[in-house]
């Protein structure tokens, strides 16, 4: 007798086959735009391991700046180790209300870290293990040409290195329910942003690819598409010396809250300028991710909602009667954090603009873009000596009600900014003390 596996549920997400945006629309209406029901007691799924594969330890802590010029294999390993540690490694120990926790250079919704990083170089294909700061060698063969062939827009010259950023589909579902899938796209966007920042600073001319043959890359990495999928491929030249600037090491969420003091508008404008820099992507966006500021205590800026004019960089007032507190549901942690913050930056986008060209994939492409921008805001805030906190627990209809544009523009991510209270959470930096800003 022929066995029949049960048909996937009608609203399964991510969809098993392209539906031209119908599955993404359905998912967003039911889960993606609705406040997540967060279970703080639920844990995160375990990170990916490949038992039985050869383990290549990377030097820890990496020497920073990594050795320039030297083309030998030891120096190449040192540079790769520095890149991966600063991308997704364990870089600090925090003392928080929840006890002692380890911290990473990138933020992640609920600290679930659904993203995994694989790297293809001339020496083979590896998976990065953050906790051990080691590489699992999946194949000693050079797979870079195969990676490039799977891309819709392969780089002109064959890439010297490629980072493949995946998400584990179950990583954060226990805590966030199906909303976790949207969070995964934001999270892998944050990782992509960090990869671009690091590779740009190492003169490696990176490009982030969101358009590729999913099955081919999944097959190359040995992934089961029901549990893990590739979200981005970052192609680049071989990175030069990795020399993180101080803010990159200091970035973290402002856990202790914010001092109720004003933020100079010039500082805010500098953060926004950094966030709005063009992103080196393999596709043009049908509509930009516009940035809005909901101001509370910003010198020279009236409380209310302001849109950043992409052409002039100026803030144009679009609505009054709203402060960051009003972006969050009453009586929750978001409301308190919003009350204390000097302002909230809203990263917005338009889902409908991209479904005709990209289908369901556009949903994750747009959230990926928002994640890149969120990562840049966090880093620019650290550079300006500010505290920042990325938030997904926004009341989306309340936030969207104060945007001045057509009804399809919606809030993808909020970032609270202000001066972190006191000295912030006590921290031990594992890659060296970053020092004052
Ligand atoms: C996409 C995204 C959404 C987030 N949403 C929230 C949120 O709603 N509330 C919150 O307290 N923190 C939120 N965070 C911050 C994480 O909780 C934080 O990054 C994580 O605990 C790691 O801590 P760190 O940023 O200090 O390294 C979010 C982070 C990301 C990347």
Structural commentary:
The structure is a single chain. The chain has 12 helices and 19 strands. Strands 1-6-5-4-7-9-8 form a 7-stranded antiparallel β-sheet, with helices on both faces. Strands 10, 12, 14, 15, 16, 17 and 18 form a 7-stranded antiparallel β-sheet that branches. Helix 5 packs across helix 11 and helix 8 packs across helix 11. It is globular, with a radius of gyration of 21 Å. The termini are far apart. The N terminus is likely disordered. Flavin mononucleotide binds next to helix 5 and strand 17.
Chain-wise SSE layout:
Blueprint: H1 22-32, E1 55-57, H2 73-88, E2 92-96, E3 99-103, E4 115-121, E5 124-129, E6 134-139, H3 144-149, E7 161-168, H4 173-176, H5 180-201, E8 207-209, H6 214-220, E9 228-236, H7 246-250, E10 258-259, E11 263-264, H8 265-275, E12 291-295, E13 298-299, E14 304-308, E15 315-319, H9 333-340, E16 343-350, H10 355-358, H11 361-383, E17 387-391, H12 396-400, E18 409-420, E19 427-429
Parallel strand pairs: 11-13
Antiparallel strand pairs: 1-6, 2-3, 2-19, 4-5, 4-7, 5-6, 7-9, 8-9, 10-18, 12-14, 12-16, 14-15, 16-18, 17-18
Helix pairs in contact: 2-5, 5-11, 8-11
